[in-house]
Fold Nucleolar protein 15.
Amino acid sequence: MVLKRAAGKRKSRPTETDSVSGRDGKAKKADEFRGEEADETAQLPSSSDSEDSSVVYIGHIPHGFYEKELKGFFSQFGDVERWRVSRNKRTGRSKGYAFVKFEHPEVAKIAAEAMDGYHMFKQSLKCQVMKKRDVHPELFNKSNKVLEMKPWRKIEAEQHNKQRTPEQAQQRNLRAIKRDKRRLQQIQSAGLDFEYESLQEKLPKGPTHKKF
């Protein structure tokens, strides 16, 4: 009995080149998968950054509740390592919020929960524990100091009352007259029938002091 081979194409055995290319393809796919996995892992925040820090943000602080009062008040919860009231760089006035750093994060959490919504001098405090990723490295630069406010009222009064030369006084009067005219134009453009003696008529024509 003679057996006949089935009709059709004969399958060829894989060569050494094909096996090498197959291994290379699998290795390439594995490298791509590991690269994608690494990218996804890099995008995820680290557990340490998402953890709570020992820094408490305090908002809506009232007038008069500054560095000394801040440290003294929050020391009832535990050791306060650093404290800072955010102030305007030019005027030195408080911006209405502050930061306190405790020794342990657990103490910071207790203090924030206890003081959040606490009423103080008609103000309701807003307290929350900051995440480690939100704490700026230079947050407590120049902290633990009581900053003195600049006496701006005294400075402005001295600036207003200082002795001026006739030329300086004339320039000052011209600026005041321009402001007065602009104010009168705004009144007229609003449709108001209002008349008053202009500043130009009130100001003296010449210098008000004599040189000796």
